[in-house]
Amino acid sequence: KPKMTFKKLVKEMVAADIELMRKEILIDGGGEVNEKHFRPTEVDLLINNPKKVEENLKWKPKMTFKKLVKEMVAADIELMRK
């Protein structure tokens, strides 16, 4: 069974962002996405398997997930400062 789902990825990204920004954010309730933003051929559920990528493409990431989020947050902060 895959270890990572899209929902789990989003939760991990938000948690990493909060940790990096040192802010407490309360996420309560739900939300809706306007259907005009849906792609007509989008699949309902995407599940990744990093091991499959490593095996089939002989490729491994050069940075950790946390480092990726850290760089993304730093870039967003820099963009907001401009």
Q: How far apart are the first and last residues' alpha carbons, in Å?
A: 44 Å
Shape: extended
Helical residues, percent: 40-55%
Secondary-structure element pattern, one letter each: HHH
Q: Low-confidence stretches at least 5 residues in length (pLDDT < 50)?
A: none
Helix-and-strand structural type:
mainly alpha
Describe the sheet with the most strands.
none
Radius of gyration: 16 Å
The tally of domains stands at 1
Number of strands: 0
Estimate what percentage of residues fall within beta strands: under 5%
Report the mean per-residue pLDDT as an integer.
80
Number of helices: 3
GO biological process, one term: 'de novo' GDP-L-fucose biosynthetic process
InterPro entries: GDP_Man_deHydtase, NAD(P)-bd_dom
Domain NAD(P)-binding: 30-72
GO molecular function: GDP-mannose 4,6-dehydratase activity
